[in-house]
Design a protein that fits this description.
The protein has 321 residues and is an alpha/beta fold. It contains 12 helices and 14 strands. The strands form 3 sheets. It has a 7-stranded mixed β-sheet, with helices on both faces. The protein has a 5-stranded parallel β-sheet with strand order 4-2-5-6-7, sandwiched between helices. The protein has a two-stranded antiparallel ribbon with strand order 1-3.
Length: 321
């Protein structure tokens, strides 16, 4: 890695594997899709804007047995830093590090992780005290549910699908039950341990909900299950509350969540600090600096919902195909 002058700073995603060179940043994504790609793109852009040219190599979890070997393959490339995008990615690395001597553990910068302390990645907000440092993905459920109620105040029953074996989803649902009760909303929960169960989960909610809430659960938010949720909602004329604009673009009514691109920018800040000599153990946890709201007017019309102009003017983006 070298820092370049502003005039000569260029970004090049170089496949170090093919060139036989070392890797500055090895990127491990929890999956494919825009949910991760937007953050990674901003990560690249931010490094470029700050005058850094680095070599990267990208790996993607596929959800099969091959995933277990990825952390070992990544460390074989001897990266200066590993960028872990999403909870599954950082958990895979942490599990591998339990079998690896400390001197072989490259610093890890994570992003799009809801509860880094609860996951045991870092010791505190103020100081990591581990080989992991990064950016939290946090929006309180009350904030999201209130956004839905602002445009659909008659909503009383909200269906939510999640994997009960996922520790992050468990903690999010604990908060959600508390927040929903304060708002006078009843959560109708459907469990989903595998993507193939999405049909049964949706059927269990049929006729029992006024809206659906798509949370950042690794199983339910994957491309195929989330598409099934959107198709189910369209057939049954149900609004969908999501956590990212990509889902609104695909047909959800509204989303309130973290700026996914900003997650990449904040991760780049952490990477730069480590490249400049700071230890990951000394770094604080970075948190989102703003939340964004998205609306889909085509969906709103299909549901006979009128979104006030004031809310539309404050939105990060309004989709109107």
């Amino acid at each position: 890695m070298q820092k370049l002058g502003a005039v000569f700073a260029v970004w090049g995603v170089v496949c170090a594997l093919l060139q036989g060179q070392g890797v500055d940043v090895a990127i491990l994504q929890s999956g494919e899709g825009g949910f991760y790609a937007e953050a990674v793109q901003r990560f690249h852009t931010t490094l470029e804007q700050q005058g850094y040219a680095v070599q990267t190599l990208v790996f993607v979890l596929k959800g099969d047995r091959s995933d277990a070997d990825l952390p070992r393959r990544i460390l074989e490339k001897r990266p200066k830093i590993i960028l872990a995008v999403g909870t599954n990615a950082v958990k895979a690395i942490r599990a591998h590090y339990e079998k690896v001597p400390p001197q072989q553990q490259a610093p890890v910068v994570f992003l799009q992780v809801i509860d880094p302390i609860g996951e045991g990645l870092i010791k505190s907000v103020e100081r990591s005290d581990t080989r992991f440092a990064g950016v939290a993905l946090t929006v309180r459920p009350q904030r999201q549910l209130s956004t839905l109620l602002d445009i659909a105040p008659e909503t009383k029953r909200v269906g939510v699908i999640y994997n009960p074996r996922d520790s992050v989803s468990q903690r999010l649902m604990e908060q959600a039950r508390e927040d929903a009760s304060k708002l006078g909303v009843a959560l109708q929960e459907a469990l989903l341990e595998q993507a193939s169960q999405i049909g049964d989960a949706l059927k269990s909610l049929e006729g029992k909900v006024d809206a659906l809430w798509l949370i950042p659960d690794p199983v339910c938010a994957a491309p195929e299950p989330s598409q099934r949720v959107l198709e189910f909602a369209e057939r049954h004329k149900l609004p969908v509350l999501a956590f990212a604009g990509a889902f609104v673009q695909r047909g959800a009514l509204v989303a309130t969540g973290v700026d996914m691109a900003e997650q990449g920018a904040l991760a780049a800040e952490q990477v730069i600090r480590i490249l400049e000599g700071e230890a990951p153990e000394s770094l604080p946890l970075l948190t989102p600096r703003r939340t964004l709201t998205f609306y889909n007017l085509k969906t709103a019309r299909a549901l006979n919902i009128t979104i006030p102009d004031m809310l539309l003017n404050l939105a990060a983006k309004v989709y109107e195909p």
